[in-house]
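Lab notebook, bench 4. The sequencing result for the construct came back, and we need a structural model before the next group meeting so we can plan mutations. Quick request posted to the team channel:

Model the 3D structure of this chain.
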Amino acid sequence: MAENKLVTLDVRKMPPWERHPTIFSTFEGLAVGDTIELVNDHEPKPLYYQFMAEMPGQVEWESKQLGPREWVALIKKVA
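Done. Here's the predicted structure in token form:
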């Protein structure tokens, strides 16, 4: 059985308009069980709500580190 992959995606230096498309495209490329470790410069609440609305039941979300300058969330593909 293949081991699950962890992809670190630091979007802090990306222009804001590129962030969500890059994150969703990376998520689409994951296999079930793989996880994105998202590093951001603000709390990614809008992204969380977008994932929950557009991909219900396909995502597990865990906030690991909360600010003030670095926010880390684990976004796991579950279905």
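Strands lie at 6-10, 35-40, 59-65, 71-77.
Will bring this to the meeting.
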